[in-house]
Amino acid sequence: MVVARAASMPHCVSRIKAADTIIWDEAGMSSRRIFELVNAIHHEVAEEEEANKPFASKQVIIVGEFLQLRAVPGTFDDGEFMFYSKLFEKVITHRFELKTMMRQNLADQTFINALKELRLGICSAETEAFLESLNRDLEGEAVDIYFTKLSVQLHNQEALFKMPGELIASDAIDEENVTGISCPADMKLLIKPNAKVMIVWNVSEKVKNGTAGKLVGVKDDKLEVEVEKVGRVFLKRETWYVYLYICSQRLIDQG
């Protein structure tokens, strides 16, 4: 079903055929099933002379750390690493290991050694003592991290309702057939003055997807947001269009 659905989408097929190289980042988070599905889709849409070759003869570059986050198992996917696929051995014939630390201070060998152990599931007495030494009171507000979008939404809603101030609600507006369309906006925006917000699309060079701020209020049907080192930003209602499906979706920005 997945292969047939992808092969029925003209925009998907055209992009696959236009590419001659596949660069697969964060490969550790993709499962054996996903790896084999992408290969099957390439077979389905390839020209006859390439249809039986792995990934339709495209060059495949796999990038990632398999000891970090792994694929999440589900009903139709056991979450096995992609390198367990027999296809992986045939396609990925050259392997390169990058050993130079780029993010950590090379002088802090205690921290580096702890990271090396933990990535292998090891915690020596020295590493345990080092981690215990980091126990301290945090400055500022703590950030709660969840693994699913629903958990995040429930937490944010609970925190929002506990805040003082008037609740501002705006509904998204769908036009024509929007079935299956993925969009960064929710169907209903709930917000209060002084609530923390995060931009989920690129507004300007300084205010982009992931930029955090605090809602000041609503002015002239626009959300007024205070962004650190940027100042006041006014966010208007945005519209997302999907031309290939001959439909559009008008949504409230998440601002």
Question: Which key terms come to mind for this protein?
Answer:
single chain; 255 residues; alpha+beta; four-stranded antiparallel sheet; three-stranded antiparallel sheet; 7 helices; disordered C terminus; P-loop_NTPase
What do these coordinates show?
There is one protein chain. The protein is an alpha+beta fold and 255 residues long. The chain is built from seven helices and eleven strands. Strands 6-7-8-9 form a four-stranded antiparallel sheet, with no helix packed on it. A three-stranded antiparallel sheet has the order 4-11-10, with no helix packed on it. A two-stranded parallel sheet has the order 1-2. A hairpin with a 3-residue loop joins strand 8 and strand 9. Helix 5 crosses helix 6. The longest helix is centred in the first third of the chain and has 14 residues, at 32-45. The radius of gyration is 24 Å and the shape is flat. Residues 245-255 have low confidence and may be disordered.
List the helices and strands and how they pair.
Blueprint: H1 2-7, H2 10-18, E1 21-24, H3 32-45, E2 59-62, H4 86-91, H5 109-118, H6 125-133, H7 149-162, E3 168-171, E4 173-175, E5 188-191, E6 196-198, E7 212-219, E8 222-227, E9 231-235, E10 238-242, E11 247-251
Parallel strand pairs: 1-2
Antiparallel strand pairs: 3-5, 4-11, 6-7, 7-8, 8-9, 10-11
Enzyme class: isomerase
Domain DNA helicase Pif1-like DEAD-box helicase: 10-127
Family: Belongs to the helicase family.
